[in-house]
Amino acid sequence: MTMNCPQCGVIMVWINGSISHDPPIKYYVCRSCNVNVTKQQDDSYEIEEIKS
Ligand SMILES: [Zn+2]
User: Fold this and answer.
1) How far is the CA of 16 from the centre of ligand 1 (A)?
2) How close is the Cα of 3 to the center of ligand 1, in Å?
């Protein structure tokens, strides 16, 4: 599933899945905000800044 960034609304890069592989916990990266987003099965999510 694609997911829009909670902070800026851009479609994030989904790094651990695809159309045919849909894991329960999904990891995304927003290249605009430079954050990692972890989305849980209950649709809650955590945002973590990527340290450069
Ligand atoms: Zn963003």
Assistant:
1) 18
2) 11
Give the Cα separation of 12 and 3 in Å (integer). 6
pTM to 2 decimals? 0.88
The answer to whether 18 touches 28, Cβ cutoff 8 Å, is: no
Number of residues that make up the chain: 52
Report CA(21)–ligand 1 centroid distance (Å): 24
Write the pLDDT tens digit of every residue in 37-47. Answer: 999 999 999 99
How does 8-41 read in b/e, with b if 16+ C-beta sit within 10 Å? eeeebebeeeeeeeeeeebebbbeebebbbebee
Rounded Cα distance between 32 and 24, Å, is 25
